[in-house]
Design goal:
Alpha-Beta Plaits, alpha+beta, binds zinc ion, 31% helix, globular, 10 helices
Length: 413
């Protein structure tokens, strides 16, 4: 159904710059995120939600939609993140294309950039619908202001429709998802939900409950630099060692040559001179065993190279980032089933392709809050081609309403 306040609310939110900053040392990473959260918080107060507060530890706004039934229903939570990705987000000027014809290129503002169905074929799925894009020089911020505005709209709708029976619903508006640090601060006890969903996904029907398992490692290489004229037998080039390490990894297992359920090693950063070099990689695999095997391969290569050098010139720091939430959610399939049922009730075709990345739910699930990800209507995230579709956002709110209703009809344990 149509929710008349959803579009104005979304437009208001995306115009507020709330980009996070991965280089910041504070938490939340930027003050502008907090400024945006305060706006959301005031809207929640104005709508009359309960227990609206800012949790300092989590850097999150928490609120509750009180139950409308006296039967025992588990407390369900929904989360949306307030920060936007690492792309220009100053002076976002949304552009609305109503009744899109499904074939034309949409010029982004007066820029040289276009949303072109030849490049982005998914645009053709939205014939007759309302496309919301930015103007060529910024991202849109639909990731995740789609989710934020959908949750606030859900609250407004349920507070006006007491005839819809549901248990207690907890909402959280979180920081720093895009830089991967927000979820680790989350206050699961204060949130107080038995399980939750992030509302931060792509097109209608997408249901994410499988993600990569992830690790990161850093190599620091110490060489010996002497004048090339007298280098024989003395120079040890850190750059050559770096090259040898890189060449020892499986050449095909990189992001640009993998898809589906295939994992990879990805060199993120490389810098150095003959004297020293630093490298930074991420490792991704859908299987925990696979992740461990990849980590072991890295350790083995480092050991072999160090042994061949006769002295340990390579030091390795390796750490896990997050794990595939599916491993944990297999124990709680009733939560996934609840979302599936809500999607089906609305006639949506379900797409459960695993996410080749992580979500806040990947961490939260392992912090004791099982947390799959629902679609929010985001498309082409993280850049100037980002757009969303108003009708997708309406459907996302429908799914939320249907999910809480179903849970009250047939409470899961
Ligand atoms: Zn997101």
């Amino acid at each position: 159904m149509e929710y008349p306040t959803l579009l104005p609310r979304f437009l208001k939110y995306i115009k507020i710059n709330s980009r996070s900053d991965e280089h910041a040392t504070r938490f939340p990473s930027t003050e502008r995120e907090v400024d945006f959260q305060k706006v959301v918080m005031q809207d929640l107060v104005d709508l009359g939600l309960s227990d609206v507060h800012y949790n300092e530890k989590a850097g999150a706004v928490i609120a509750e939609i009180p139950a409308t039934t006296t039967t025992t229903v588990p407390v369900i939570g929904f989360l949306a993140h307030c920060d936007t990705a690492d792309f220009n987000s100053e002076n976002i000027r949304p552009q609305i294309t109503k009744n899109y014809d499904g074939q034309s290129k949409i010029q982004l503002g007066d820029s040289d950039f276009y949303l072109d169905p030849a490049v982005f074929p998914h645009l053709r799925d939205y014939q007759g619908q309302t496309i919301i894009s930015a103007s060529g020089d910024t991202l849109l911020g639909g990731d995740d202001k789609c989710g934020v505005s959908e949750l606030v709209t859900l609250a407004e709708y349920l507070l006006a429709h007491h005839e819809i029976k549901h248990g207690r619903i907890r909402l959280a508006f979180t920081p720093d998802e895009e830089i991967g640090t927000g979820a680790s601060h989350f206050d699961v006890p204060d949130f107080g939900a038995a399980f939750a969903f992030t509302v931060d996904g792509e097109k209608p029907g997408k249901l994410d409950w499988g993600t990569f398992s992830a690790a990161q490692f850093e190599l620091s290489i110490q060489g010996v630099d002497v004048h090339p004229a007298v280098a024989k037998g003395q120079m040890v080039s850190a750059l050559k060692i770096a090259r040898d390490f890189q060449n020892s990894l499986p050449a095909q297992e990189v992001p640009e040559q993998t898809s589906g359920r295939e994992g990879f090693f990805h060199l993120l950063h490389l810098s150095g001179i003959v004297d020293h070099a630093e490298l930074e990689y991420i490792i991704r695999d859908f299987e925990r065993d696979g992740l461990e095997a990849r980590k072991q391969l890295v350790r083995d290569i480092v050991d072999q190279l160090n042994a061949a050098l006769g002295t340990p010139r390579i030091s390795l720091k390796i750490y896990d980032q997050y794990y595939n939430m599916a491993d944990e959610l297999k124990q709680h399939l009733e939560i996934v089933d609840l979302a599936r049922a809500a999607y089906r009730d609305l006639g949506l075709e379900i797409n459960e392709d695993p996410v080749r990345g992580g979500t806040d739910g990947s961490q939260l699930t392992y912090m004791g809050l099982p947390c799959p990800n629902l679609f929010a209507g985001e498309e082409n995230m993280h850049g100037r081609y980002e757009y969303t579709v108003l009708e997708s956002m309406y459907l996302a709110v429908d799914v939320l309403v249907r999910t809480v209703s179903r849970l009250a009809e047939a409470p899961i344990k």
